[in-house]
Amino acid sequence: MFDRIIGIIDSANYYLWTYVVVTLLVACALYFTLRLKGVQFGMIGEMVKLLTQSGNLAKDKEEAESVVSGNGLPKKRKHVNSFQAFAISLASRVGTGNLAGVASAIFIGGPGAVFWMWLMAFLGSATAFVEATLAQIYKKRGADAFYGGPAYYMEQGLHKRWFGIIFAVLITMTFGLANQMVQSNTLCTALADTCHFNIVWVGIVLTVATLIIIFGGVQRISRFSAIIVPVMAVGFVIIAIVVIALNINIIPDIFRLIFSNAFGFDQAMGGAVGMAVLQGVKRGLFSNEAGEGSAPNAAATAHITHPVKQGLLQSLGVFTDTLLICTCTAFIVLIAGLYNGDADGIVLTTQSLEAEIGPVGRYFITAAIFFFAYSSIIGNYFYGETNIRFITKKPQAVFVFRLLTGGVVLAGTFMTLQETFCIVDLLMGLMTICNLIAITLLSKKTFVLLEDYKAQRKAGKDPEFHKSILSEKDAKDIECW
Questions:
Q1: pTM
Q2: d(CA 353, CA 351)
Q3: What per-residue confidence (pLDDT) applies to 455?
Q4: pLDDT band at residue 282, thresholds of 50, 70 and 90?
Q5: On the chain, which terminus has fewer CB atoms closer than 10 Å, C or N?
Q6: How far apart are CA 342 and CA 347, in angstroms?
């Protein structure tokens, strides 16, 4: 029965992605790139500068510190800073999609899938800018932190709460539940394969560890992500550079392989171009999330002086994820040349690295996937909780969701990677369609804000946003500026 359901979902995914999602993703990415005048290329220096700054976060120091507690005494507001918001979104982006997803895309779609992942990252980073900026514009003020995301800009900006509820349900099911199964499946498979642990016990320990973190709240999530994400990303990049350096003589051949397969110039792969495109776009979106509507939930939590700042940082996150970390995995897999065998997902990545640097590669990947997948589980949970709170204010709903999160983390242990991806692809496609419609309708505001940001920066100022630059009708829907 389960296999039949998976088959039906897989068929639905083919039509949904072939005819709808890919078309919308590419069309929106091109439109935003043109209207924003290539912001993702022209302002890379500004992105890096913002990431390294720590003093530009509090728009109003008194506002940040003069929050009144329940007993009437002043207390400090626990703001999530710009880097922490970036780290939360990167924690969700940088996960099994980078190690298992890329390998799976090459296994199914061939080396050409890598090119389409690159292309979607270059163009999709403009989409990421738009959705993150909108999340900042329409963020809400909570008891001890800001929150927001697509559901909130659908309600405030489009005045369509029903649309926001549909999206909130979809993202909660996608990230809060289905995506968690992909992460736990990959993590548990890697540990069981490398260390010969009992996979059931691995799943139980992972579930308990997840519950400990998620019951701690957003500040614990942000602190955890801010520490672990840079460490795991840098470590993986270093090991990939070593592999590439050891095989520097064949790197030109690897590039030729990617481009020839991407366009069908290789006669043997000529009939598989469509599959390369689909796998490249799907796994690229799963990894970098540009346009999907997930990262804006993290972007909304930042306390900054101008929404464009977080938009730029989220664009940088797409580059970091796909052009750096995904490329590292792709090169390791392609250099080893084992992708035509039976191994898929994390097993293929593990075998490839082991073939290049010996047994230490197996243990390195196992350690890396532990941190990648675990941080993604935490980041994914945050997206789900944010949208549960949009649907209902009842605290019992969040409590139940936390328990469900533990349940699906454990359930992922008993499924195959392709089964988990099949479920995620359907939900991910539907939520992406909803988000792209919303940000396209609201995107004109981001164009105005970008010009305002550039003008202030040109005048030598640290840009600050005032909603008065928008029309009176648009300004009244904005709460926190």
A1: 0.78
A2: 6
A3: 93
A4: low
A5: N
A6: 10
